[in-house]
Queue: 3 jobs
Job 1
Amino acid sequence: MIKQLYIICLILALVSFSSCEKEETHYYTTATTRLELSKGEELIQIQGTITLLNISNQQSYSTSTFNNSQAIMQVLRGVYSLQGEGTVRVKTADGSVSVRYFRVSESYIEVLNNSTTIVLHPIWL
């Protein structure tokens, strides 16, 4: 009788431990910012800084690393404001090359999906 009780307890323990699943939570996501130029303009080089500020907890994320016109950051999911500035070398449709100073600003961006792309339209200074 004790042997059967021991076996039943062992089976219940195995079933209860095997039914537990590891809860997966994904608090972070990828935010990709992309600088969009006017039609006929080609980006040659970019140098600047993009900063995302979490509106809820005031945590900020910054990057100065660009791949072509894109900057990628791992951020906590949430709602952000964005500020950025820098310089770009641009080739225009007529073939001339110019250096321009730009700023970008967004007051409300939802970064909630697995990957969010934020298209930025520069303000030329």
Job 2
Amino acid sequence: MAIIGKNVIENLTLGMYENSLMIYREYIQNAADSIDKAINLGILKEKQDQYTVQNTTDLDDKEKAQIDIYIDQKKRTISIYDNALGIPKDKFYNILSSIADSEKDKESNKGFRGIGRLAGLAYCKKLIFTSSYIGENKKSIMIWDGELLKNILNDTKNRISASDLVDKVIDYKTEDCDINEHFFEVILNDISTENNELLNVKDVCDYLSFVAPVPYAKSFIYRSKIYDFIKENNLKLDEYDILVNGNPLFKPYKTHLLSKGKTYDEIKDIEFKLIHSEDNKLLGWMWFAVIKFVINIPKENKMRSIRLRKENIQIGNETTLSKFFKEARGSTYFIGEVMAIDKNLIPNARRDYFNINETLREFEKALIPILNGEAYSLYHYANKVKISFRKQYDIIEKENEFNLKVQQGEFFDKNDEINAKKELEKEEENLSSLTNSIDKLENKYKENNLYNKVFNLIKEDFQKKDIESNAAKFSQQNTIKTDSISKNDNENNTHTEQEKSNKKKKYKAQELSKYNKREQKLITRIYNKIRKVLAKDMAEDLINKIQEDLKSE
């Protein structure tokens, strides 16, 4: 007779997950499966989503399906509760004491291996399962002693078998309850001090908002477009009401993208793709946001990257699909989701990818041209457009800067002005070729609506910058003119002799009227030396400071 040692239990509990927060996902997916069954049996309301119209007249008489998570930091306790079917009393002990012996169908259930429910044992002293089945007046309670389990596992001299170990660390009892109650609750008592992250409500909410099968936030204006696509293509999207300490969770997709706390881009539309195998079998679908695609989206945007999901539960993390991009960083140019739907795309035990089979290889083969080809081409195209517009904008900026310097007398002398003019003319020689380059980029994908959107987004961005820049220059010029108007002249003589004198002052040192021409030439020579020795920005700063000091003396 084969002997299964106690270390199997360690691998399925203490060594199962690299991130302790994953236990929330395990208990949620079990609760979701039970909710689905309760809805099919007519015990709970059909989930109220954006693309399903309810016609049943008695829905209001039924309970609304809900998963409640309560975190008590003071008592160091976590509860995960659902109001679904529960487990019948005569099946409770066998189901909850068995390991990797689930009766669930892997093709239709989110959790099906029968090991995820033990995940909490690694992080608490007591793991308690409580359940009541509809129509029964008894609730069943099973307590797993996590502390005793760890002590036995750490005792190298104790050669107890896995089954004997389970019998030793569990306790079972029943209690009276209302015959109409139906629920299942997991309680983790006395969370270990080294796992305080499990009690951090914000961290838990942030994690579950992406991982769990929750709805899109109502503030995400494109959610209705996603739901419309689902309805039009006869697809399904599992969504559940999940609350943490009474606050509902939503996917944190937002319209605006941030860089250092400030908006630098925004979602202007979303695109969809159906993912088919070579024999035209539907394997999944995806959506992604239409943005400018000109930089890697900063990490402060929690929704960045294309996320992989099955039954609306995240598979892996934000980097899982990066291997399908020609460049690993490619995924972070995008925001979106790939929804795997084929029943043979089965999440592995850690839910960081799928079990390897023929369907997975078909799925990967279908993803490669989308992510490695189309997505790569799109953000590289966007980058070329951005560079071309940036160069064009920079030349126009330099023209404006030159004209403003002439007007304000910012050049040191005639040679300084001539040299600046020559440099500008060299830049202007490229302006025509740049304009042609931009026209070619615009025409290259003239028939492609997505590329047209991206091109126009980038174009509008630079036009906006140009308008803002010109407005700033106009304001600056106005300020200069206003400052030179005398406050002492009467209405018929508004300009002072000083202003008339200023019109003759073409170069920078001439503003220093208290110095004679010889001294002004010396100051100009000093300014020229500073410019040659220091970097441009440093030189300009230093020169301006000297100029202000000399004016105020």
Job 3
Amino acid sequence: MSAASCLLTEDQFLCSICLDVFTDPVTTPCGHNFCKTCITKHWDSNVRCQCPNCKRLFYTRPELQVNTFISEMAAQFRQSAQQKASSSSSSSSSEQQVSKPGEVPCDVCTGTKLKALKSCLVCLASYCETHLEPHLTMSGLKRHQLIDPVENLEGRMCTKHDKLLELFCKTDQMCVCMLCTYSDHKTHDVVPLKEGYEGKKAELVKTEAEIQQMIQKRQMKIKEIRHSVELSEEDADREIAEGVQVFTALKESVERSQAELVDMIKEKQRKTEKQAEGFIKQLEQEISELKKRSAEVEQLSQSEDHLHVLQSFTSLNAAPSTKNWTNISVRPPKYEGTMVRAVYQLEETLSKLMKKLFEAELKRVQRYAVDVTLDPDIVHPKPTQKNDREQVNQGNECRCVLSKQAFTSGRFYFQVHLKKWSDWTLGVARKLTNMKEKTILSPSNGYWTVCHKWKMLGTSGYYAPGGPSVCLSLKTKPQKVGVFVDYEEGLVSFYDIDTAALIYSFTGCSFTEKLYPFFSPCPNDGVKIHSPNESCVLQ
């Protein structure tokens, strides 16, 4: 058998369908040999049974039996080829590279997997240098298509036709085989893989450029955020330092006022004690003198010497030299008003310090100053300024004007001169939507304002409309008011510019729409709404 097999060529042991060494070879009635599985699948996929080689038609499907003679010869040939390959592998495996992670391993190697040199698109397997040799030497295997080693070779085959994916359908954006162009993709725009690859590669280059641009933008954003954090840290450190300085000064001022108060009270007490001690000393001296006189009088009264008694009686009977203590007393010091005066002085000190703080605060917010121009087209003729105690009647209605500028983020500051208006409302607001109805000013309706009504309950009154409204106690009448808004922080603050005092602040606001500087002067005060060709600037 061995000798006979050596006389046969390797092509005689290859199935013409799978182009591999026979596995369970069978012989058709026309005398051609095939793997049993190969010819069975071939006939199953075709309507007619015919020989793949000679095309002889069989009207009745032949019952095929394994040809034991050819099977034994094929097994002998396969064993001989494997021994040869194993021998060659053992002599050269030390020179070949072992497959590393990320590299394609040989599918035939057992034990240590060597690095694959090629992958076969027919066998759907990858081979190292040793196991690749049959594809390079055997004429039947030479016809197989070899490519650089890749993984997942099954993915390169059409699942429907079991053919190599060698075309690209632009219509469906998918890889197809040649048979697909005669069925599902018959009318589609199909090009060779290389052409599709070049088109996609150009798109990838463009995509890569776009991705790099996105990366650069995000890197710039990271730098911007980090810079913002650095500035925030600097601001935080500065605020902490200023806060520590302010509260240290406050603490020192309170401690100094407390020490001065304690020293003053103790000084009064020391004076009282000193006065009492002087009185006591004088009284004790007089008591001592009186006791001495008493002893002399007692001694004289017991004497039997008539002459001595008569001679001494005049001097001893005279009243001793003493002070009249009837109206003399020690009165505890009075402390009424002492604490009030001390607290008042402390208040003056704190007021001076607060003024310095507000001046510094005002300078900071004025850095965000913007020019605001009133829009004569946005005028509300009938607003209602209402607090918890008063509903304005029709005779006191005012006009509300918004600015042309709107703000949706960041910080901004503007100032308004109020000297010529007795009553006014000032702040920021959302867009006026209904021009025909009265407007209730409150944060819930989109108005963050402060108001002045000259005769509110018979007195001059300042208040912040809301639910409920807040009455404001101002020492002086503001002539110029500054408004500062921090959109993200939800803060609206009002400042008296001349006194550098904080009038009121709305905090914790939630802004989601455009904010407009808002002003409402009362009528008959010389207020003029300019024509569209003119501008009214709040300064």
